Amino acid sequence: MASNRPAQSSSESPSEACVAEGTTQxxxxxxxxxxxxxxxxxxxxxxNAEELKREGNDHFRAQRWEEALATYRSALGHLPARPQLxxxxxxxxxxxxxxxxxxxxxxxxxxxxxxxxxxxxxxxxPPTEVEIECAKARAVLHANIGACxxxxxxxxxxxxxxxxxLKDDPKYIKALQxxxxxxxxxxxxxxxxxxxxxxxxxLELLPSTSPDVVSIRRSLASxxxxxxxxxKRETSEMLDKLKGLGNSLLGNFGLSTDNFQFVPNGQGGYSxxxxxxPS
Length: 279
What we know:
Blueprint: E1 27-31, H1 39-61, H2 65-77, E2 85-90, E3 117-118, H3 129-152, H4 155-168, H5 173-186, H6 189-205, H7 212-250, E4 260-264, E5 270-274
Antiparallel strand pairs: 1-2, 2-3, 4-5
């Protein structure tokens, strides 16, 4: 169900908005091994990363996108790298940036239900609190980095950053929304298809009563014709390039691709006919 909490005040840190009571926490992927860091070391890393994240939030609110980006990256460098992931567990959701802009259409009020889904015998062991916190912190910082790139118009970087966030939290609403928005702007066949998948995932995660569902459905409906048009455009471009390559080779023999015609054979395929003097 949607959250009934009041809107975030201007003085509240954009990455500190709490998940409303009664909302189910999103799924977080956590590593089975935190590497060589012992808990005290990791706690220090988390504390340093949190401090830098707050500094980055200040830059973000002041619309200093480059400074915010550099600070979030610095914060990420304090955290243990993500080892090989072995299990999916229920954990606390990542708190997205609330930037009060029109492109922040999908709120963190409903992050979806998650459950433990072990993938190996080793996955039966529950993660430690510090493992969950590290996964959450990485997801938050990667999504915040994606928010900075979105403001800077670096859409491919948005996709890359949000994909990293989703590796730690596959149900991170803001990361899915930002990645879909960026892929729409990239406007290639593959990126538009990816945006479709992210919007479908958002519809599964958000409750039907969420006001964001309407805009997501509208975006999803508009993507169908765009995907089809991009597919035709890129297919045509590819065929033109292949034709140019073929002509450069066949020209050595006084031929061109126009000497070869492909006609349907009635069985779902094509037959190639040689034409001596094409019109």
